[in-house]
Recover the amino acids of this structure.
């Protein structure tokens, strides 16, 4: 197995893990009202809302993970386009 094939495999595994983690982080956000989050348990989120600091940290983690997720997708796309694998 070549080095680039190993890199591709590792990036694909990281991409799957990041996708699952990103989904979980997005679902942890407090609903802003009027959307699906209110339809499925909106009353609970109003009573058990997170603090401002926790919400800001959750936002930061979500943004950082989303940027890494996009970077991995771009890297895999470039590797495929230029036939590096």
């Amino acid at each position: 197995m070549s080095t680039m094939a190993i890199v591709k495999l590792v990036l694909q595994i990281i991409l799957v893990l990041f996708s699952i983690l990103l989904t979980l982080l997005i679902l942890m956000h407090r609903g802003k009202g009027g959307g699906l989050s209110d339809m499925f348990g909106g009353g609970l989120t109003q009573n058990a809302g997170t603090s401002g600091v926790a919400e800001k940290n959750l936002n930061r983690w979500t943004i950082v993970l989303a940027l890494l997720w996009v970077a991995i997708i771009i890297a895999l796309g470039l590797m495929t386009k230029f036939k590096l694998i």
User: Anything to note?
Assistant: The helical segments are 3-28, 36-39, 42-47, 52-81. Residues 29 and 59 are 8 Å apart (CA to CA). The chain has a mean pLDDT of 84. The chain has one domain: 3-81.
